C-alpha cells in the first residue's frame, strides 16, 4: 500500500465504505460528504496520485474506470437523466485525497461546469 493513503485503505477494506461496485481493478463507493443526490467516487485499486500520473501503460485501467462509471450510473438510476464525471488534480482544483478518483455526480440539475 502506498504511504498513508485513505483510498488505498478503503480499497483494502481497512476503512469501511458504502460500496456501489467493485471488481479486481476498480472500486466505487459513496462520497462521505455528498454534494448531489448521487455522489459516488470511482477509484483504481492501484495507487496513482492523480491524472498527472497517468501514462500509456494505464490505458486498460482507464477503460475499466469508465466502464465502472457506466455501471455506477446504471445502478444509481442516473444513466437516463445524466451525470457529471469530475476529477480534481492538484491545488487549484482543490484536490484533497491524492489517490486518483472520479466523482460521479447526478440526481439533480448540476448547472454549468464552471
Ligand atoms: P477531492 O477533493 O480530492 O477531489 O475529493 C475527495 C472526496 O473524498 C471528497 O468529496 C470527500 O467528501 C471524500 N472523502 C474524504 N474522506 C472520505 C472517506 O473517508 N470516505 C468517503 N466515502 N469519502 C471521503
Ligand atoms: Zn492510494
TrEMBL record:
Q: Where is this motif: Histidine triad motif?
A: 99-103
Residues in coiled coil: none
Q: Which ranges carry the HIT domain?
A: 6-114
Question: So which domain of life are we looking at?
Answer: Bacteria
Q: CDD domains attached here? A: PKCI_related
Name the chain's protein: Histidine triad (HIT) family protein
